Amino acid sequence: MTAMKLAVAGAGGRMGRALIRAVSEMEGVVLHGALERPGAEAIGADAGTLAGLPVNGVVVTDQAPEVIVAADGLLDFTSPAATVGYAELTAQARLVHVIGTTGLSDDDDVKLTAAARHAVIVRAGNMSLGVNLVALLARKAAEALDADFDIEIVEMHHRHKVDAPSGTALMLGEAAAAGRHIDLDAHAVRVRDGETGPRPRGAIGFATLRGGSVVGQHSVILAGEGETITLSHQATDRAIFARGAVKAALWGRDRKPGLFAMADVLGLND
Predict the structure, then answer these.
(1) Which residue among 32, 111, 157, 233 is the active-site one?
(2) Active-site residue flag, 157
(3) Per-residue pLDDT tens digits for 146-183
(4) Of the candidates 232, 266, 270, 229, which has an alpha carbon nearest to the alpha carbon of residue 122?
């Protein structure tokens, strides 16, 4: 089988550069294109040089339609608005769209679901094997332990992250809520300040920390009377997310259109 031609969106960002490196290191894939928003400083640069690699001849461009139409897949860790725009193009081209973008709204979700009627969309708040295993464990723990065990999710990221809670924290919250058979939005507590009163029974709390260059730290805490269980994951290198995204693209190749999660890619939903 010929190598899968992948394009990278947001090529000039931290994750974009990590994705370019991952594509260069992994078998079965080749870098077909590198995209950036109009006016971005990286436009015109060689994608290899941008990622700290030898020159590869792939020039960063803002011409998304012409890049996507000739690709087999798009790796997209950008912004909600950009991702929705790319989803329209990947649906038209009927290719694999791997989305690691966080901060998507309910309206964005509706648009991605519509695009998934024509494209294979793999969307995850986190592409790492470790985090997806923690999510599975969080769901099972929440199911096994009743509401006498309070659930708190603590996350920390670098100072430049713009959305909170992180997509991974929300993914872990959804997993815990699924274990309890409750709706996360109806039970989530995201802000505490001043006289908040007692903690509501069955709530799922979120605490957000930002600072330095932290790639990602997440903990699911189940606190009962006299005992506490903590499930934790610490990412020290963005390469784990980039490699996971490439694996997701390869998994999605030749599949029928649909909306999938990283748990599907890893076989955790089997």
Answers:
(1) 157
(2) yes
(3) 999 999 999 999 999 988 999 899 999 999 999 999 99
(4) 266
